[in-house]
């Protein structure tokens, strides 16, 4: 009798997963694997974690879908690129389908009055952020996935406290899971000087509300509505090499001045509203006119549960599929969605120079094992795969044909594509792309080229780890 009951429960949970996740076979396999290995625990986890994906409709109702009025308002402030008029005609012609897709993103048009600075050293990035914030006269908006209350975090706190006491309006938004170690005393000190602070979906609330999968992975700093910073860097000592196991931390971050900052500001304000339930009023105050004369074309693209389309995934796919000569990719985690996997393999087989850099040292063993299983598949198609050995590489960069690039917060994994709130900038300026190319070459020089025969030397235990991690990879 007990065996029949257990068998009946297993059939019910299996059918439930099949019906709920039929649109994503890889996720179905991952959840069924967990339920087979951990029958009771698997069902509980599925109820509280997987069901969160179905909450997208509710998140969309209160989230960041841009209204017609907001879209018109931002368009009035910026100089959009009409039919890519500011871009090299040959580049547009060679990547016509990619540009057609980019033009279709009405919530994120290409803008042409921008100046971009690329940072590759974390210390330089922090110095630039702090220097820019020190010049703030009206407001500072800060959003990070992880904020530590360590020496680096307290350096930011000291400056933000001083600016708040000067009368500058300061808002700080952090992710509840990414910053779960953030000291309550640290938060209280911010509030005591008038800094507005909010946690995006605190873990306990998100768990019981079945929205714990929706993490805000964006990193945004906007100062006076004119200067913006975004990229892969969070706030903490490990980003300055404070983690003894990982050592040197390599990341890519951007400073933006110009029209693109308005769209970063809009994303911060949307996330603030979603987190706090309150809208930031006096909109004109936060979107001031600027005098930037730069001509760099930049497109800010956001994705997340509050969007109807997986814009960053689609942008990656369109760019990779359009590549004619080269695809250079850097990502700390490599768990690509099936369409990206096929696009990269097809490009390599077709003669495109495809190179991927991932870390040799991993901050997550399970994710690293899963990444290696995909890397082996890439190698079989002719992709050159490198393991960065200087320290830990956390940069998220994709360069196509040496003429366009994207930098941001999105990793090359399914969590970034489908669950997280992410932010990327698409860049076209030759000097900016050249800088990213130079950085990629430097990173490649600090990496080990994996040879296909290296894979055959892996032990059976290592292969088993990679197989298991790959089965679970859609949930990582």
Describe the structure.
- The chain is built from 20 helices and 18 strands.
- By secondary structure, the protein is of the alpha/beta class.
- The strands form 3 sheets. Strands 1, 2, 3, 4, 5, 6, 7 and 13 form an 8-stranded mixed β-sheet that branches. The chain has an 8-stranded mixed β-sheet with strand order 8-17-15-14-9-11-12-18, sandwiched between helices. It has a two-stranded parallel ribbon with strand order 10-16.
- The longest helix has 19 residues, at 2-20.
Keywords:
single chain; 476 residues; alpha/beta; eight-stranded mixed β-sheet; 20 helices; globular
Low-confidence stretches: 205-211
| Helical content (DSSP H or I, runs of 4+) | 40-55%
The shape is globular
Mean pLDDT: 85
Number of helices: 20
Number-wise, the strands total 18
| Radius of gyration, taken over Cα atoms and rounded to an integer in Å | 22 Å
What is this structure, in a nutshell?
With 476 residues, the protein is α/β, with parallel strands linked by helices. It is 46% helix and 19% strand.
